[in-house]
Amino acid sequence: MVLSMTGVGKSIVRHNNKTIIIFVKTLNSKQIDISTRIPALYREKELELRTMVSEKLVRGKVELSISIDDANTSLSGVQQINVEALRYYKEQLDNLNKELGLELGSTEQLLKLPGVFVSAESSIQELGAEEWSAVRQGLEEALEAVCAFRRQEGCMLEDVLRQSIKNIRFLLAKVDIPEQERIQQIRQKIEEGLKKLSIDGYDRGRLEQEMIYYIEKLDINEEKNRLRNHLDYFEAELDLSEGIQGKTLGFVAQEIGREINTLGSKSNNADMQQIVVKMKDELEQIKEQTLNIL
Fold first, then answer.
1. CB-based contact 263:182 (threshold 8 Å)
2. DSSP-assigned beta bridge partners for residue 293
3. Pairing state of beta strands 32-37 and 60-70?
4. Which end of the chain has fewer CB atoms surrounding its CB within 10 Å, N or C?
5. Which has more confidence, 101 or 165?
6. pTM score
7. Which DSSP string do the residues of 192-242 spell out, in sequence order?
8. pLDDT average, residue stretch 5-31
């Protein structure tokens, strides 16, 4: 099963007079990268929240936000002055003014410094065990919603990947048509070139040996076989019920690209080169999609 790294999930938890809204959003990333926006009341539990997210989502750029709507708290949204922070800033500025002869630190400037204002609500609340249990449950529900979204998105990604692999197979089969004419064209070009040079008495047997050697260097049967094997392996990975990793598919896509590039460099035929260009277009789509697979 293919899982996308893109997902969203939301849950709403009600505890006593509070409505707690938990929202999780994920995008593709090589590693797990979590950013949080949570109330001060839950800051002491941030590490635990991050652990829950990383264990469930494994990879991706994750945004976790938690907000509280407490309709019955009169202090909801009210800010109060942090006297200790204000006193610290005032002392620092007084010392700086005295030492450098400056006049910094008006009341308006002091009140704009970080940490001077704090939430009156958070300053008088403590996180209870029941509320924290409700938050954990809400986060688990939001993460499950993200996983469901990832599965749904993954199904669409899988369809796109399978179609691109199918298209490359179809194009690879078309390579055989100009391939049958290509060797004969190469032989004719060499012989025509020799005639133009008006070289008499050359060793025909030696010429045949050299042409065979040259033609063998341009032979693409091995590349075609390896490309088919890589396509088979890619599809086999998609057929796995679990354990599919975008990194593995990305590595296989790189190998597919190497064989396609070699086909292009050896083709020496306009029709084959056009087919190779179409293969590369399909491969680019595969590479783009694998970047978003878990």
1. no
2. 4
3. parallel
4. N
5. 165
6. 0.71
7. HHHHHHT--S--HHHHHHHHHHHHHHT--HHHHHHHHHHHHHHHHHHH-SS
8. 94
Answer yes or no: is pLDDT of 258 > 90. Answer: yes
Contact (CB, 8 A) for 121 and 78: yes
pLDDT digits (tens, 9 = 90+) for 178-229: 666 777 777 777 777 667 666 566 666 776 676 667 767 778 888 999 999 9
Residue 139 token pair: 């986060």
Q: Looking at the predicted structure, is the pLDDT value of residue 153 above 60?
A: yes
Strand partners, 18: 15, 70
Whole-number percent of the chain with pLDDT over 70: 85
| 146 contact partners, CB below 8 Å, separation of at least 6 | 7, 8, 9, 24, 26, 56, 57
The overall average pLDDT reported for the chain is: 85
> Cα(213)–Cα(262) distance, rounded to whole angstroms?
18
DSSP-assigned states of every residue in 54-81: HHHH-SEEEEEEEEEEETT-TTTT-EEE
DSSP-H helix ranges across the chain: 46-57, 83-100, 107-111, 120-124, 129-197, 204-217, 221-239, 246-267, 270-290
Token pair recorded at residue 80: 């109060």
3-state secondary structure of 102: coil
